Structures are given as structure tokens and as C-alpha cells.
Model the fold of this input.
Amino acid sequence: MGPRSADGIAADYAELLIGDLHASLASPVSESMNFLNEIALRYPEAVSLAAGRPYEGFFDLDDLPRHLSLYRRHLTERLGGDEESVRRTVLQYGRTKGVIHELVAEHLRLDEGITADPQDLVVTVGCQEALYLTLRALRRDERDVLLAVAPSYVGVHGAAGLVDMTLVPVRDAADGIDLDDLVARIRGVKAEGRNPRACYVIPDFANPSGTRMSLETRRRLLRIAAEEDLLLLEDNPYGLFGDPDGPPTLKALDTAARVVYLGSFAKTGLPGARVGYVLADQRVTDGDGRAGTLADQLAKVKSMLTVNTSPIAQAVIGGKLLAHGCSLRDANVREIATYRDNLTRMLAGLERRFGDVPGVSWNAPAGGFFLLLTVPFLAGDDLLERCASTYGVLWTPVHHFYADTRPRNVMRLSFSHLRPEEIETGLDRLARFVRDQQHN
Ligand SMILES: Cc1ncc(COP(=O)(O)O)c(C=O)c1O
Done:
């Protein structure tokens, strides 16, 4: 054994400088997920108003064999009783674009009014992979930029960073996006000789703000996309958890293939299955007359990344879809009611505790998992740490959704995974913390 340094590590042990690794690894975004997970692990007794997870009380291991056998029966029928092919489909390496694409297309038709050719779907390892594939394909060189509402889901900052795509922030608004600012940003980017490839949006109950775009905003956004020759990346993990008579998705309104639709089964299916998808029906030509779709190109990227999404996980999700006639709205009746009750309880609880507290305000989303609480002090990671250790409650500092480390006076509160009494306890603790901060 060679000589050892003071900290006990062999002197010839390989050591890498983070500055010599990919630039995204040194950015604050890459720390965000780890920091937030790690703090929750360190304070297991704390009530978490931070985790954007589905309620675990509905998870049941016995659903897995049930859903697997439903999918198996479906496949056996589809394949004319050929058990060998059934076994191969579920257990062997498989189709890059996935095996439950027809069931996903049927879900989109039933629940979202989206007409999708199953061939234009790529079933992915969660929505996060769908985001990565899309950005990887769209980013040709350093001039290509992504626009996104600020604040936006941490994962879009992360995926953009991994493919070296600059993210240009667009101002938020009460119904999700400031369209005048969007146009100004697009023009600004073009004036600099750069290329705005797409704008990432979460029109339904956004993460972190909980906002939902009006029908008028959706229509204007589609018009702007057409006028400026821009794609829209519509991310929709939460749309089902709200009023069924709300406005249609952008993709349902899209008549010109402007929208790449990103889906996740983490909230409506099972997060542990890690299954999502992307609907990319844009035509791609090679100049020699051969044409395919963007989905075909995304499949090429996927074939070099995760090869294919586990068909076993797809079978579990496929079985859940089949159990409910492919309607996730039907599959989530209990979940939809629970999240709505939790949201009502949160809003009433905030009013009771903060209604007359100066400097404290919050928005009132109509669904989803999240809302934003504005407080009269800067709520950064250091205060979160203090709040967790001394007051026993966790929330998410909103700077994580701006991909920087500058604390702001806003926190994201989530309520999806808690029981009613946990929401009350969490809010009591939060109220004590906010009161003490004000008096410091
Ligand atoms: C807006 C948004 N998109 C995508 C995801 C990730 O989805 P998945 O778990 O399917 O990768 C999340 C998860 O929190 C999210 O909030």
C-alpha cells in the first residue's frame, strides 16, 4: 500500500477537479435535488410541506401482480395467444419507443381530448427523460436557447444544463406566463443572433406556482409560437388534479404540431415505476424527401441513453390503464378528491393562521400539488435548515426554481402527500416559525 495523506486517503488515489467535469455539475441546480432530499432525511420527524410526492396511503404492492396479469392478458389477446411473444415483450430488450404506446394514446384521447398517433409517442424513464431527449435533440449548437417561465421546475433547468442549452427566463404572471415578456425575450434572443428553439411551460397547476393558464392565454401562446416559429414544450404531470371542466391542454388546441407534449405517470400511476412519455408529432425531413417525426429522432437519442424503458414497469402502468378503461381520471378518483380536500384545508389553514399577518400572502390555485407563500423575510436554505431543526417543518425555498442561490421571500408549499392532521401540524409549526422570524 502506498503512502497516505492526513485524511487517510492513498496519495496516488485518483482525484478529479469538479472544474474539469461537465460545467452543469458545478451549477447550483445539480445540488438542488440532493440538498432537498438530504435535508428531509436529516429531519425525519419534520412535517414536510416540501415534498412534491403523491399520497402513499394509496400505494398497494398487491396492485402490481394484478396490473401485470391484466397487461399480460391484454397482450395475449393482441398477439393472438402467442405466449412466446408475450414473454418476449415483457421480459426481453424491447421496442425503443415503448410497448404501451397504444394504451397511452387511448388515455390521451379519453382524458385530455388529444388525438395522438401511437407511433408519435416515446415511452420514457419518467418525464425527466422525455425532457432530456427533447432538449438534446433540439439543441444543435450554442446559439439554440430554451425559454421557460421563471420560476420553473428544477428538472428543466437540470436537463437544459446537461445538454449545454441556455435557459432564458420569461416573467411569470397570475395565470402562468407574461406573454408580452415572452415576445420581448424571443425578439431579444433573435436580435443577438441566437435561436429560440422552444418555450417550456406547465399550463396546468405549475410547479412551483400552482397557476393554471386561462384559455385565452393558451390561444395567444399558440399564436405567438406560430408567428415566431417556436415549439412549445407542454409538461403536464398535475392537470388531472383539478376541475375536469378546466381549459383544454395546449396539445388539444394545437392544430399545427407546435406542441411537444410531455407526460408523467409518477403522480397518476406510480412514481416507483418511473414511466413517462413524450408525444412529438412534428415532421422531420432530411432534405432528400425522407420524412419521419420528431418522435423518431427522440427514439435515436433514447437508444443511446436508456435503450428502452423497462417493459416490466410499462406493463405495470399498462395494467393500471387497462384496469380503468385507459382513463386515468377514473383511476384517480380517490387521489383527485384527496388532493382537492388537502388544497381546501391548506387555503383555510393559511387564512386562519396568516389572514391578518402583515407581509404574508399566498396564491390560491384551483388544483395540483403546490402553492406559493410570500413572507416578509428572505427564505433561503439556511432558514430552511433552522426551521427544520427548531420548528420541525420543511418547505422549499423558491430560489431552487430559479436555478440560483439568491434567497427570495417566497416558499413553495406542497400538500399532496400529507394526511389532514399533518397539514394542520405543519401549518401550526410554520406559523410559529414565521412569527418568530418577524420578531427577530
Ligand atoms: C413539472 C414536472 N415535470 C416533470 C416531473 C418529473 O416527472 P417524472 O417523475 O415522471 O420524471 C416533475 C416531478 O416533480 C414535475 O413537477
User: Anything to note?
Assistant: The chain has a mean pLDDT of 95. Residues 333-354 form the longest helix (22 residues). The longest strand covers residues 370-379. Residues 52, 126-128, 153, 155, 202, 207, 235, 237, 264, 266, 271, 276 surround pyridoxal-5'-phosphate (CB under 6 Å).
